[in-house]
Specification:
heterodimer, A: 497 residues, alpha/beta, Rossmann fold, 6-stranded mixed β-sheet, 18 helices, 25% strand, B: mainly alpha, two-stranded antiparallel ribbon, 4 strands, disordered N terminus
């Protein structure tokens, strides 16, 4: 038997303290569609980035067609015939299909006359090979999303790609467009190309793939021929871990309703008809896949993308925040997902970071009061055990977990009624993670209503008093705190449990 | 709970950092330039009178001539700290000068009223910049490039390219041409504005917000800061100060004309950036800007006093050349340590 097209052995990769991959084995054969499945953060993206040369593995080996390769770079990966097709094609919209293909394939060395006929003919041949009825002269702008993906695939084939990676290719496609894409994928298979196919849609994987590998917490939990597996088994493989971490027990005694949403929606961000209540002292977890609308919902509540349907009640009073300022004034705090861009100003010291949302209260009359600011910062540094050299340390000098505590301190200083936490422990090392969990518990105990958005399923399960599962921009269901992972995952994926 | 560890750096190294900051190094350069010109640019003429750079009269002259560009540099510092730019301040100086002359001469208003109205025009013009930038989300460079032409064009339209306003009362000209308590009169105004802008940038929540917005515009929005209002206020303040510079300009020259302040915006931006304010926003200080203004003024006037330069009759050209060189040197020195660190990180073996 010929060697596998791509063989990964014991691949490991860490980012700071977080271990994204812990010794993954993976094999792709020629003429195979191999699906890669896993929860958010299971390690799929890291794996792909290593195969395409964007990241270097810490350890492990990569072999392409039996030959070991070391020091893979994006350029050398391309030269080895590895191509990746992303959800959003990266083509030049104002150039023709033929020109776009030429830009990828013609080397840029030296000035030559452009051979327009050769360009058109090559584009025509490549598009024909995948059975795509697209004119080489069409402007890319005029093409639909799947047509653009087909152009990307044509580029990949033109570059001699033997390994094609497709990352959620159907996420923004209609049913009909999907069938077009699937036909091309099957065609690639018959031409001996190996396809790594990443998708959250189980039915798609079952219909298209030959084998499936499931990743969980940076480890492969097994590779199975598609004939031997079904949806229920896949879900179980994805979530079926022992609870690896001990979460502090809930001590909540939920009080009055703090937040009530009725039919909330915002067309611009794809969120519609969301209704639920969060009580004071309660941690309400929001689970769902990436793109299910959880962050979008938080942005509506925080006035970043104001709602255009439904109502928000905070402490019994209807509110409609049109900007973060209004949301803050009404008692909403939002610890954002993107800590480095939105959560902490990396170039400012900790003290100004922590007082940023309370200028009016701590600096009445607009004059800065350095001593009051320093005292407040020292208080939170002690209280939340922020590891730093002092209030003068720059935000960017702290580790991820400590930055997150600074972001948290900024919002606790506003003394909010509702605390929205968006991925509060993403990219945070294990120690800081459990500290943050204890802080969240304490805040809830003190009577704060907490909305906890997390893609870390055990975290949502372990921390939440109740769990809302979002799918496709709306609430797919609400589960009690003790819900198990397969139930949540089934709701998030839209499968009957 | 965790004790706060003492900062690792000793007080000696804190002082070392302070003495080697961008502003301090520029200050050393300024002092070196000054001393050089003091010795090389001062001569005794045939009648035995000391002339040139080293005379007190010349020093006051430098101060007098620096006030307008200095004011524009002060106006630009908060704007640049927010990550913006205002190219229109020089043109606004011209427009304000013309309107001031017109308020006084054509409308017959008393000087104080004309001054107040002119400052109001400055605020409105700055408000126009601010509104276009924050409400329409247009890039500051393009917006103020537009108003740069617009304001100058308006000034020329009002004067039909030929009218100049002169014959201002002596009481008004005192502001631009006489001394008060030993210093040129307008210097007091300049120092007052410098103190006010220093307080604004370094001692109030406005300055804090400018910095946060300059470093992380989205981050500032996520923190609930009124980003648009703060940014707009920086442009309004810049407009008012540009109008004030127009008043001083008119008082110094005794005439208001449409081409007043042409090209001043570029000198002002140079002074601000030379003073260590990052054109990308966030970092910057008023003392840096003041040292930057002084460095450019000393370089320009000092060169004009050098015998060799006088013989060539090329003081303008050489001072332009050296100002440019100094700016590029300052910028390069600012980024070199980072590039060096990156290079070292990439090539650990070669850096040894």
């Amino acid at each position: 038997m010929s060697p596998a097209l791509l063989e990964l052995r014991r691949l490991a990769k860490s980012f700071g303290g977080a271990r994204a991959l812990r010794g993954v084995d993976f094999e792709l054969r020629a003429g195979e569609v191999h699906a890669l499945l896993g929860e958010n953060g299971a390690g799929k993206s890291t794996l792909i980035k290593i195969v395409t040369g964007a990241h270097q593995p810490d350890s492990g080996t990569i072999a392409v067609a039996g030959t070991p390769v070391a020091d893979l770079t994006p350029a050398s990966a391309r030269a080895l015939g590895i191509a990746c097709i992303y959800q959003q094609p990266a083509l030049f919209p104002d150039l023709s299909v033929a020109e776009n293909i030429a830009l990828r394939l013609e080397s840029g060395a030296g000035a030559r006359r452009v051979d327009w006929r050769a360009r058109r003919e090559r584009a025509f041949t490549l598009l024909n090979r995948i059975g795509a009825a697209i004119s080489p002269e069409a402007e890319v702008r005029s093409l639909s999303m799947p047509e653009q993906q087909l152009v990307e695939i044509a580029c990949a084939l033109g570059a001699g790609a033997r390994i094609v990676i497709m990352d959620e290719p159907t996420a923004s496609l209609t049913q009909k467009e999907q069938h077009l894409l699937f036909a091309v994928v099957r065609d690639l298979r018959t031409q001996g190309v190996g396809v790594i196919y990443i998708s959250h849609r189980l039915e798609e994987i079952l219909a298209l793939a030959d084998r499936v590998t499931v990743l969980r917490d940076g480890e492969s939990v097994g590779t199975h021929p598609i004939a031997e597996i079904d949806e229920a088994k896949l879900i179980k493989l994805m979530v079926g871990r022992e609870v690896a971490q001990i979460y502090p027990p809930s001590e909540a005694t939920p009080g009055a309703v703090a937040l009530a949403l009725r039919g909330l929606g915002c067309r611009a961000s794809g969120v519609h008809s969301v209704s639920f209540e969060v009580r004071a002292g309660e941690i309400f977890g929001l689970a769902g896949l990436v793109g299910a609308g959880r962050t979008e919902l938080a942005r509506i509540l925080f006035g970043l993308t104001p709602a255009d349907a439904g109502t928000i009640e905070l402490g019994g009073r209807p509110i409609a925040p049109q900007s973060p300022q209004e949301a803050v004034a009404q008692g909403i705090a939002y610890v954002p997902e993107d800590r480095r861009r939105h959560g902490v100003v990396l170039d400012l010291p900790l003290a100004p970071n922590m007082t940023m949302a309370i200028h009016r209260r701590i600096f009445p009359g607009t004059w800065l009061r350095p001593r009051a600011e320093r005292d407040l910062a020292l208080g939170y540094i002690r209280d939340l055990a922020v590891k730093c050299t002092g209030p003068e340390a720059l935000g960017g000098s702290l580790s991820g977990g400590n930055q997150q505590k600074v972001s948290l301190a900024r919002w606790l200083a506003t003394q909010p009624r509702l605390l929205i936490l968006d991925e509060p422990t993403q990219g945070v090392d294990v120690g800081a993670k459990s500290e943050i969990h204890r802080i969240i518990r304490r805040l809830a105990k003190e009577g704060l209503a907490v909305l906890l958005i997390s893609s870390d399923l055990p975290e949502v399960l372990g921390m939440s008093d109740r769990i809302g599962v979002m799918r496709g921009g709306t609430l797919a269901g609400t589960l009690p705190g003790g819900a198990d992972a397969p139930t949540v995952m089934a709701l998030a994926l839209g499968q009957a449990a | 709970m965790a004790e706060i560890p003492k900062p690792k750096s000793s007080s000696a190294s804190v002082w070392k950092d302070r003495l080697l900051s961008h502003e301090m190094i520029l200050l050393y350069v300024l002092i070196a330039l000054w001393v050089f010109f003091y010795f090389a640019g001062t001569t005794v003429n045939r009648r035995g009178v000391v002339v040139g750079f080293g005379t007190l009269d010349r020093q006051f002259d430098i101060l007098r001539h620096s006030c307008e560009i200095g004011l524009l540099a002060l106006a630009l510092t908060p704007v640049i700290i927010t990550g913006g730019i205002d190219l229109s301040v020089g043109s606004l100086l011209g427009l304000s000068a013309i309107l001031f002359g017109s308020f006084w001469h054509d409308a017959g208003l008393p000087i104080p009223v004309a001054i107040a109205l002119t400052l109001g025009v400055g605020a409105v013009a700055g408000g126009l910049n601010g509104a276009l930038i924050t409400q329409l989300k247009l890039p500051p460079l393009i917006v103020t490039l537009g108003t740069y032409s617009l304001f100058r064009g308006l000034a020329e339209a009002i004067t039909r390219g030929s009218v100049t306003y002169t014959d201002f009362p002596a009481g008004f000209l005192f502001l631009g041409q006489e001394r008060l308590l030993g210093l040129p009169a307008q210097a007091w105004l300049f120092f007052a504005v410098a103190a006010a802008i220093w307080l604004l940038v370094h001692r109030t929540t406005f300055g804090r917000s400018f910095r946060a917005i300059g470093f992380a515009p989205e981050g500032a929005r996520y923190a609930g800061l009124p980003v648009d209002r703060r940014v707009a206020s920086a442009y309004v303040i810049a407009g008012v100060i540009a109008a004030l510079a127009a008043i001083i300009y008119t008082a110094r020259l005794g005439q208001a004309k449409a081409d007043a302040g042409t090209g001043y915006e570029l000198f002002a931006i140079t002074a601000v950036v030379l003073g260590g304010t990052s054109i990308f926003g966030g970092t910057g200080s008023i003392y840096g800007t003041l040292i930057g203004v002084a460095a450019i003024a000393v370089l320009k006037n000092g060169l004009a006093c050098l015998p060799a330069v006088m013989r060539m009759n090329a003081a303008e050209e050489i001072s332009g050349l050296l100002t440019g060189a100094l700016l590029l040197l300052a910028l390069t020195a600012g980024v070199l340590p980072r590039h060096w660190a990156q290079w070292r990180a990439r090539h650990p073996a070669r850096a040894g």
